[in-house]
Structure to design on (472 residues):
């Protein structure tokens, strides 16, 4: 099958405008882009929206800000999750539970007590209060020989997988404590302890839409073949992958109660022409690769580091998968040795963004290029964000400078019209201030009010503000 390749270019000027309305600009509020991480818009209704972030440098806080209909900051809720100076912490996930609650998972571990604890911090907007619960306590030998916590969410948002993998040397069994939660209630669906003793290690942990935990088992040698372990309430089963094939960070999708994996992959034998030249569609229940599609555009990126699945949607008997590559672009001084250029670190940037369209038999039908800014360094800012509005995809690529003009990339992709791409124009009064930077992934649409919410930072990340515009 010939794959249709569609490219759209970022065009336009800063003098855009909806004829229907003027955007609502919020007053910038204090922010710290160097310390606040994992920004998410949550708990939005017709009157308010909330912004949740966490800090993992200096003061360890969960920060939740409340905004009104005019995008003005009206309240701030903070919770310090530091236990004591001897305890280390890792934030592992932020998820909206329902219309009123958001949960933050944090791993806390101490070399003094030789214990790791998995905390669940729950914020309820109806009370403005945080509550906490310990989901599990695990012992270890030392900080250097402690385990690791992994949290994953199914693409349909129904399940959360909490996996604590104990430390193990190569000659010791790998033991993982698995707990599956209902993502809407946070109640436990099932718990399992999984033990392996072979020449493989668990490289990925993926929740399926039907509540199965899928573990990708990878060989310790460079040449080898993955296999898949499927953990359910009934037990654990394994499925083989085609021989001499290595998978890279699969994503799980489903058709009713049937689960599938979509994964970039490469052969471990023969002539190797890069890691991202094929993308497979794998039937988990049958343990069979239905289709391994050749794909263009990624191996041609110089020194490509990885390709991440950003968003996954199902409509019109198709899977629509948004992806984004990471690759080096220049270097920067090392944080440890800033004055020694011999220790410079690569600057990893986002790019190579695409919308991949699969039919339900696994054929790659469309490979749509999304041109984005190439100065979006990996970290706080993503190179684009996506919202689904009436079956169309609105893609936000933010402010950029091209051919002597400032432009703003906001586009609509229409799946029902052969994935036609059109510009979405909105009036922007810059007052000659082009110093802001768009937080492209921070966008949210309210179908009741028909307002699209966008965000940006100012003054090198010391402030942030929200904008909303009416889509009609």
């Amino acid at each position: 099958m010939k794959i249709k390749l569609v490219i759209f270019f970022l065009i336009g000027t800063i003098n855009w405008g909806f004829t229907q309305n003027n955007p609502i600009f919020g007053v910038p509020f204090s922010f710290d882009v160097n310390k606040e991480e994992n920004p998410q818009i949550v708990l939005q209704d017709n009157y308010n929206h909330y912004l949740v972030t966490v800090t993992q440098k200096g003061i360890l806080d969960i920060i939740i800000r409340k905004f009104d209909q005019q995008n003005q900051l009206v309240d701030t809720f903070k919770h310090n999750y530091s236990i004591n100076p001897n305890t280390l912490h890792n934030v592992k996930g932020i998820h909206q539970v329902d219309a009123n609650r958001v949960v933050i998972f944090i791993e806390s571990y101490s070399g003094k007590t030789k214990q790791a604890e998995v905390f669940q911090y729950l914020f309820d907007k109806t009370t403005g209060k945080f509550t906490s619960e310990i989901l599990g306590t695990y012992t270890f030998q030392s900080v250097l020989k402690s385990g690791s916590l992994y949290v994953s969410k199914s693409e349909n948002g129904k399940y959360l997988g909490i996996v604590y993998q104990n430390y193990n040397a190569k000659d010791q069994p790998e033991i993982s404590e698995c707990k599956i939660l209902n993502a809407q209630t946070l109640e436990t669906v099932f718990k399992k302890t999984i033990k392996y003793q072979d020449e493989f290690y668990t490289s990925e942990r993926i929740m399926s839409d039907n509540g199965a935990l899928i573990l990708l088992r990878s060989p310790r040698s460079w040449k080898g073949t993955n296999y898949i372990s499927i953990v359910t309430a009934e037990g654990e089963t394994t499925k083989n992958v085609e021989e001499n094939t290595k998978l890279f960070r699969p994503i799980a999708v489903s058709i009713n109660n049937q689960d599938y994996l979509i994964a970039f992959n490469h052969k471990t034998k023969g002539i190797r022409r890069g890691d991202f030249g094929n993308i497979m569609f794998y039937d988990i229940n049958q343990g069979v690769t239905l289709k391994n599609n050749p794909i263009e555009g990624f191996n041609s990126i110089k020194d490509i580091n990885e390709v991440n699945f950003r968003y996954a949607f199902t409509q019109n008997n198709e899977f629509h998968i948004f992806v984004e590559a990471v690759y080096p672009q220049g270097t920067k001084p090392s944080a440890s040795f800033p004055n020694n250029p011999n220790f410079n670190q690569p600057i990893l940037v986002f790019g190579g963004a695409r919308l991949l369209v699969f039919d339900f038999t696994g054929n790659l039908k469309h490979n749509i290029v999304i041109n984005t800014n190439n100065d979006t360094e990996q970290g706080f800012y993503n190179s684009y964000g996506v919202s689904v509005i009436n079956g169309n995809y609105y893609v936000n690529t933010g402010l950029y400078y091209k051919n002597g003009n400032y432009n703003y990339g906001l586009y609509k992709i229409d799946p029902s019209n052969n994935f036609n791409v059109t510009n979405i124009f909105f009036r922007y009064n810059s007052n000659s201030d082009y110093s802001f930077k768009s937080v492209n992934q921070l966008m949210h649409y309210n179908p009741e009010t028909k307002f699209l919410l966008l965000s940006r930072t100012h003054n090198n990340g010391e402030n942030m503000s929200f904008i909303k515009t009416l889509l009609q």
In short: The chain has a mean pLDDT of 89. The radius of gyration is 23 Å. Residues 92 and 105 are 5 Å apart (CA to CA).
